[in-house]
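Key idea: predict the complex, not the pieces.
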Amino acid sequence: MTNLMRMSLMAWAMVVASDLWAHDRARTPIRIPDLPDGLTLKCDFHIHTVFSDGKVWPDIRAEEAWREGLDAIAITDHIEHQPHKQDLPTAHNRSYQIARAHGEALQLIVIRGSEITRSMPPGHLNAIFLKDATRLDVPDWREALAEALRQGAFIFWNHPGWRGQQADGQARWYPEHDELLKRGQLHGIEVVNEREYYPEAHLWCLEKNLTMLSNSDIHNPIGLDYDMHAGERRPLNLVFARERSADAIRQALFERRTVVFAAGRLIGRKEFLEPLFERSVRVLTPSVRVRGTGRAYVQIQNDSDITYVFRPELKDPDLIFPEEVRLPAGRVGLLEVRGRNKQTRGTRLVRLAGAVMNLWIRPQTPLPTEMRFEVILMPEDNP
Amino acid sequence: MTNLMRMSLMAWAMVVASDLWAHDRARTPIRIPDLPDGLTLKCDFHIHTVFSDGKVWPDIRAEEAWREGLDAIAITDHIEHQPHKQDLPTAHNRSYQIARAHGEALQLIVIRGSEITRSMPPGHLNAIFLKDATRLDVPDWREALAEALRQGAFIFWNHPGWRGQQADGQARWYPEHDELLKRGQLHGIEVVNEREYYPEAHLWCLEKNLTMLSNSDIHNPIGLDYDMHAGERRPLNLVFARERSADAIRQALFERRTVVFAAGRLIGRKEFLEPLFERSVRVLTPSVRVRGTGRAYVQIQNDSDITYVFRPELKDPDLIFPEEVRLPAGRVGLLEVRGRNKQTRGTRLVRLAGAVMNLWIRPQTPLPTEMRFEVILMPEDNP
Amino acid sequence: MTNLMRMSLMAWAMVVASDLWAHDRARTPIRIPDLPDGLTLKCDFHIHTVFSDGKVWPDIRAEEAWREGLDAIAITDHIEHQPHKQDLPTAHNRSYQIARAHGEALQLIVIRGSEITRSMPPGHLNAIFLKDATRLDVPDWREALAEALRQGAFIFWNHPGWRGQQADGQARWYPEHDELLKRGQLHGIEVVNEREYYPEAHLWCLEKNLTMLSNSDIHNPIGLDYDMHAGERRPLNLVFARERSADAIRQALFERRTVVFAAGRLIGRKEFLEPLFERSVRVLTPSVRVRGTGRAYVQIQNDSDITYVFRPELKDPDLIFPEEVRLPAGRVGLLEVRGRNKQTRGTRLVRLAGAVMNLWIRPQTPLPTEMRFEVILMPEDNP
Amino acid sequence: MTNLMRMSLMAWAMVVASDLWAHDRARTPIRIPDLPDGLTLKCDFHIHTVFSDGKVWPDIRAEEAWREGLDAIAITDHIEHQPHKQDLPTAHNRSYQIARAHGEALQLIVIRGSEITRSMPPGHLNAIFLKDATRLDVPDWREALAEALRQGAFIFWNHPGWRGQQADGQARWYPEHDELLKRGQLHGIEVVNEREYYPEAHLWCLEKNLTMLSNSDIHNPIGLDYDMHAGERRPLNLVFARERSADAIRQALFERRTVVFAAGRLIGRKEFLEPLFERSVRVLTPSVRVRGTGRAYVQIQNDSDITYVFRPELKDPDLIFPEEVRLPAGRVGLLEVRGRNKQTRGTRLVRLAGAVMNLWIRPQTPLPTEMRFEVILMPEDNP
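Result:
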């Protein structure tokens, strides 16, 4: 081996060694398009630390969220449930303070919250954007919620169908919730908590005009509950805010400008799902050519981190479309078009109606949409 | 379980089932920035099929390349080496024709080439952009190369240090190569072939002003030689072309507008490596604040698919920088800045000189660069 | 840095470099237990090459199968469908010969087969363990099958619900199949082909006492259709043979000693599924202790490469069991046991009845099984 | 679609949904063979929690270790460094108590330890198998170590080259360490801590007959520092113990029966490395046949979770061996043998001497070993 080769190999090896032996402390941005009138912020508003029944020091919550690509988190330790109290004396504002300091270093927004933790009804409620959490530590839950409201909090009902409070897993609406609603003390509901989806809560948000939420309710280090390195992700709220700030998030929440993002699905109002989808995908081949009963490929690039599953519904006298088109996250999918007849000739503007199966505007109801492209039909014997 | 829940679960499950049971035929774009004056096309100019000693039908080469995110490939079956001849009669242009038809359906550029396969010297040479490969099938290699040139081909020397022809793995320059150079029949050299890097060839390209090339020389289905699903990638040429066309690629090759991209490294002229790096990364936090001997984090987003390894060299009286900063592909890395002194105060514009260890402008020579950001130094006791 | 450190770092780096830069040509054994009276061989009996409409040279089929951990493959190019004929003249036995030579070098069993390719009925049928495939190239399919039988072939019906022949995707039984059955010319049916499962075929195999089969029908390089590096796997036959030989496989096929292994599910007769499951898993903690309404964990190790999903059905007056227990492949899963009452005391031998959801003994019918372990119940206040 | 098909699809989907939506709480056993006279236990003896400067509640340490396949951990919070003290009052034994309770539920061994944290010399030392950690909280480090010894502790020196105490990263031996050694208060040294290897410490262990250790020193949730889901693993001690108990581990440590397992390398005494390697790999093809200058493949199965890199050194007049043979973890690797001559004939028992590059018996010194197999040489023209 020449000396030049030996030295180059060594240089090569040294760079490689740095690859393996080092560990990246890095943030993975979540690619979801902004809306025309708002940034798409990724937020988790239900998080625990050692200061209630969670298992990590609060700064870890900011570190985990920053790495996962989130923009904002709320620390929401329980007011009433403090199993570590004997070792770690109650201090309702401390977890927020510690997490915020770390969040500031990493430019992640940290919001002060608390979980008001009562039996059902009314169950558990989160109040976020608090000014002083200790003042929620009162015997009467009605008083706690009134205080939260006085502090300007955004208040939502957590996991309404949680089996810890509803043995059959079904969410139920109680008079107490009517009462809260009437007093302006209930602004949203968790449609997804952890790995559960509550279709009843989904309907209530639509009927009662409440904000839909989707939170991790994480207690463990996040990596024990989600395989982050394998691409799994905690449930998130997409919040459509005018800027990247706590104030703008608070305003967007009160304006119900959210979409649930959980387990690869988006759940929310059509006005948000429609532009999210349309801004995620683009047809790279606006015109394709089909000869006789041959096939052509419409290429569709999906620049988002959400894999979309499109099911065409159009029947066409000249063209055959697939039952399902998958548009994988960050990649270019193929929509295969086949000719039905050997001799058809002409240019067709196709508006391929269908639905995106993993975007839900109501329980059981996927988002209708259409794909547009041109097909030039040519007879088979025409070279 | 309510009926609503049951139906929702079912809908959920059906979408999920489609995830697992289906298989995506999709393209994964390779994210590397364009240059100010040219698109960055990803190309492999050395590829075999069953029509010489390769192992796949030619259309597979277009399919593999499209999926991997390439823009162009050249099919370069051997003229002289046809081990399947008894089953599959020699037809020098057929593999190109078959691959091109598939390439057209997927909008991938397929270039006609051949490998002129002789003992060393002159060894193996690829001629690409041919008009008729059969005319290269002549006894005298000088005549074959003359014919290639008459057809307008771009000609390069393959794997000059290949152990099949150089037992010690060292590339050697012969009088025959001088002869080729003089006649204008040698335009480039493979600096990387498969998993080998030839530092001598790297130097020759710089000294003799030749085009640097990096090719897979793939014979197997690509997935047998590279763990694509684990993020591995064949060696590639980055070609800086004025448009996405075969003509523009040919012109760029003759103008030496290429960079080698292999095993996570870029090898090439500084004029190309510099803008590639600068257009890949951006400082998200142009100004950070360090209090006393505390630390701050400069966040650097790398939008490319290349992980960069930056080693700062600047010594600073007030600030401590890390030995190495890794900027992982598609993510945000952290450059940690620490204060040396408790009481320093002031605003500093830092121009952090260093080198990118995996970008090589010569053998052993990483690209020098600098990172620019502002540090506001504050004394420790100043809140 | 000391010289010792520098040298050690270099040694470290050199080993690491070898990790990254090399590519492993290696076999990944598929861990599924043998039966008491037979080896569990992993086989794919439906495979194409360039010699019909496949896309790879035949030796690649042996290479792919060896790497994936298979024991045997059959090469089954179409007799009647030869789209590459113009370039590659028909030679019905050649693909087998080429693949077998490579199989011998790697100690993989390669079986000679052909796909008799007709319109429905009778559709496509594979004949394997042929002696001379060219003699099947006759106009009358009845004659082709009679010839296959004369050569001692095992004959099975391919993809009975394939949409290329059944537009609605439903498998249908025709008089021609009765005729074949009566003549002893139909020994098995594909219950799974590629990514399709045919419940009708599953029932026919049970009713008519035929061999259940599960094949890839692969045409592309396998890595284009299955994400091998991500753990995906082609559909396989588990064949329970007395030894690792072609003869023993043939005998086991005629004796219907097979199980379908596809998409993480096993489909087959209870007599095979039961021991496969029982020999895969073992309870590591035969006795656990539950205090009051507390919980305990039964640890269950799954030494196989199949993730099992167990659903307990037992209701117990003293103990609460989970709805579902996942036993991930190659890992240790947890079965959580909780006490119902604070004061129960005693030792209980639990025989936890349930079903393994991904092992199917009939369509819709999971394998019943039970888990056995001891629970020691202790009252809460008893330290 | 028939009803049968629809129902089957639904059943299919439901199983699949359970795959995706659930999250496995599971243990991944680490496959490393036992020795003839001892179990191979995987242990981490340097771990922090929120009770000193760590970031997780202590039970998480048992959970993480159980999942990662460890057998035992020691909780070793700092005695002198308690940055959370204001929120969480000092309680030197509590982290052990909390972790042990969780360890008992999961059958993981948890050992009581403390880190005696002083400036260099003597630096940081861990004492494990303590009876009462609070009694180590004394001003004089000599007294703390004497107390640890009185409690029967195993005492080792942590990260001797840590840059926090040695700016140049070089480990140095001080008179204080001689003093400790003389008093029997120093039983081992960390040869690896986190991502650092100390070749000096490696030599000291050999010269002074001390136990070699390799620990994570983990402060964060383990998943923030190691990409577990991508197969990365914290540094571990392999401890060769007569049974799976705390007592047996303690005895093995005092008997220096350990091997360092870090970053894919094993570092330790030859008497342990040799049987570990030999019991990991087995030649599947004891006899291979080479015809003329052809090639044959010796198949070597590696049943362990360690990828071995073997470099043959034997020169042979008849056979050519590769420069390097990789034996990937849990897979079957190939050792390619090629004939040198066309006409050699005979049967050769090959004893292929070489070294395993990632097993180190001294700094820079790989474990010598040999592979044994038979080669039958046949002349080329002899069919």
